[in-house]
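Table S5 (text form). Sequence records supplied for joint modeling of the two-component complex.
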Amino acid sequence: MADIEIKNIVKIYGAVKPRRRKKGISEAIPEGKRAVDNVTIKIQGGSFTVLVGPSGCGKTTLLRMIAGLEEITSGQIKIGEVDITNLEPGDRGLAMVFQNYALYPHMSVRENIEFGLVNARIPRFETKERTDQALEIVGLSEFEKRRPANLSGGQRQRVALARAISKMPQFFLMDEPLSNLDAKLRSEMRMELIQLHQSLKSTFIYVTHDQIEAMTMGDNIIVMNEGKIMQYGTPTEIHNDPSCVFVARFIGDPGMNIVAVNEEYSIGFRARDVIFGRNVESGDGVLIKSKIVSFENHGSEYLYYVEFNGRTVFVKELSKSQRAIGSEIVFTLLKDNICVFDKNESRIRDEKAIVRVYGEFKKSWSSL
Amino acid sequence: MENLKRVGAVYNEFCDRIEEQKKTIRKHSKTRPTGFKELILNDNRKLRQLKADLKEYKHTLTRDELDAFNDYRRIRFDIRRCEVLKKADKVESSIFRKLSPVYIYMIPAMFGAMFFTILPFIFMIIGSFFKVDLVSLKQSVFKGLWNFEMIFTRDTQFVQAIWNTVLFAFLTVIMLMVITLLMAVWLSKNTKVHNFAQTLIFTPHISSMVAVSILWVLMLDPQGIINQILLIFGINGPNWLMNTRTSLLSVAMVTVWKSIGYYVLIIISGLQSIPPHVYEAAKLDKASKFRVFTKITIPLLSPTLLFVFILKFINSFKAFAAIDLMTQGGPQGSSMVLGYWIYNAGRVKFNYGFAMAGAIVLTVIVAAFTVAANKVFNKK
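The corresponding structure-token record, covering 748 residues in total, follows.
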């Protein structure tokens, strides 16, 4: 299966695309705020890749550029060996599911699905067969005569999915397809999408701002911020091994606690990665005494918002009993569970530096 | 501090007494028991006494205390005001619980509709059964359907006027819809050039029909600019307004030209209300421009198109000013439309019975066509 290669893509809204000059002279990129800033990435064929980031980070723009709905200011997109940068959206061999479904309101469910197939000059018997199949996959066969206005939100979403499936595309592009559904339906659809990906074996590119969706659905996650890719990796990598403060804070529920050690360095640790009480086994680690400011009850676990030395962090305890607000909580941080960041907010992987920062942290913050 | 307390106490008593007095007045205002007047007078005397006291005590206050006292007064007044407002709210809600406010909002529009549409219409229906004598209405004679019979059988131009009206309406509506739809699709982009063109197209709409008609009478003159331009291409233009074949078409052309700008605006707003993501989906569905236009734009625009169709159709039936100024129904009744015929019958020949009967025929035709148009468009 072909990979998607994105090379040095830039998007500047309102910019006039520079005229194509003779070969050999590089094209000048116009000035302006870059919605997508020099993104280069290779999306593997057959993967379920999730683009995640806060609102306005350029993830939807990037997806729409892949789809061909947004003009590319500069850069190149290739599918396999084919350069699709200047192809029409319909010729790219991909299907898109929109956030607001984008169904044709004046057509029935069946007509909605068939419209694209008829335009692609697919013979009538095959159109019918594919439509039937797609409707069956999403379980809407009995609704084929209805108009979108007479369907529920979840059903409309399924029609949009069926429309995409019927085209048998190499790539599915999904632009926050679940954000208009309620929480229960969303988790159901999440499972169905994962199953769909497994059965169709096409490439899915999925845009979301919800990091939980990203973590649960993706094989690969691309974290974006301000038009740039912050990190690319599997969910586990992104969660456990963030490459910068932004990713550490953005991924996870809650995001990583970041505590400044001195002017230059800061450390981060997950709310889950603490040991309550002293580390009895080896006596290692930084012991921190803190006071509970507030808490959240997550059912099987408690998330405490605690304060120590004027810093506030989250810690998570897997326990059924709840500690009182204002009471003292003592926990130990192990060296293996902390990440060290420099003042540019990027991760430090140099072992010596980590040891030094850890030592300093222990000296200044430990309550021992 | 002592002084302030004293002043406050007097002020409170003063206010309470006033309120109490008001209450008693309200209670007894209808029955007026004996001794009521004396009671009030007594009260008033006491009140006057309190007021004098208050004035006297106030002099003893320091500046700060006076400020505090004024503040207190303001607060007391404010509380009182809020109570009054609450009462007013209660009254308001009790009114609107029984009476939907819709009726109140309707009053201005209903007033206009009543006196300028509904009553004249009823009067017209009644009048159409009479041989109306305008000089003394009492001498009008009831004649049943005589007016209708006469205009259909005896009047030389009435039947022709009906056909002309229908033809005129179809001509204008079809020309207008085709031109405006194409123009709107072209103009719906939001650039400087398009906005400028939109303004240009809109200008005829804001100029008066009289001015437009006179302008076109001059342009359509046998030696006018249009025929001169046609002559460049070697075409010998007809005498547009004086030819039985072209007179109606000429008027239709002028009406269309005048109203393009207005209807283009309506269609543009309709186009802009089509959600953009539908077009994006169509792009991904590989739809060609023509297919997008026929399969997506037109179906999604059909409510707007229906609106334009009905609006213009009814307006065409009412065509009057252009006909009056350009052809006056001639030559040989070739451009006689119902609107002008009615005017002619009523205001020129003073045969109001005929005019009213003609107006009813016009109303029936408009209603029939509107219903038909609704049915046809709703099917799509």
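Note: The two ends of chain A are 57 Å apart (CA to CA).
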